[in-house]
Design a protein that fits this description.
This protein is mainly alpha-helical. About 60% of the residues lie in helices and about 10% in strands. The strands form two sheets. Strands 1-2-5 form a three-stranded parallel sheet, with no helix packed on it. It has a three-stranded parallel sheet with strand order 4-3-6. It starts with a helix and ends with a helix.
Amino acid sequence: MNRQDAPRDDAHRSRALPSRVFFHPERAAEVRGPALAEGSGRRDPACGALDVVVSPPLAIGEDVEDLIGLVRPQLALYLGGMGAPGKNFHNDLARRYGFGGAAATVQELYLSGRKDEAAAAVLADLLRATSLIGPASYVAERLAAFRAAGVTSLQVRPMAHHTAQRLADVEKLGTMVC
């Protein structure tokens, strides 16, 4: 897929499928809104309303840099290793969200086999904007941003170091969304 295909792909998804995307709530309307509106308009009414499902990483705690660091290698894989230059949907989307320089750097490093450097090059601002990682008060603010952007369902990816903390994070998130 090239950059011109991305809005058409968004329109198709909104007509046919729920959306599980790399999602920046503050930029979603600008970047994806017109295509999603077009696709929703062509959506079969029998399918019901569009369920906007996103899968942000989740980690609740005070040591934000450590928690953000857990996601860097995964995002580096998506930005750098999921397709050739010009054919990577996630890299394209990061560019459309305003992170073009960083996305290009991550992809170049990743494709040259320098995966650790690619992970280090993923901007913390991008990670924070697309995740639920940080102190509980910050996670609550991010939840509000996701809601305001039209997200109807979360399929979180707990990222804490230990299973017990992952379960605690999901439980705490449950109290925030109810």
